[in-house]
Amino acid sequence: MRETNWEEVSKMECVTKRVVCNKCGKEIGIIHNYGRVPHDVFQDYCQVDTHWDHHKEHNQKHADVESFDLCEDCYNELVKSFEMPVYKF
Known about the structure:
Largest sheet: 2 strands, antiparallel
Number of domains: 1
Structural class: mainly beta
Shape: extended
Strand order of the largest sheet: 1-2
Order of helices and strands: EEEEEEH
Number of strands: 6
């Protein structure tokens, strides 16, 4: 879950203020950047955005978008449960 708001930096942009793991509820830590970029950077986490495109009743097409975030521990736990390994490159 990302908590965002709009801020004027050099232009108006959406800035993520807080990230929480959807599975365990742990808040993802911030790496303060001390002015290198207009906003802080978060520790490693997995951001998943899925786009489901399926047909509803009466053949009406309907698209769903879902989003969630996982901390590194929850991501590793999930990946260990896979029957096929994750492709790494």
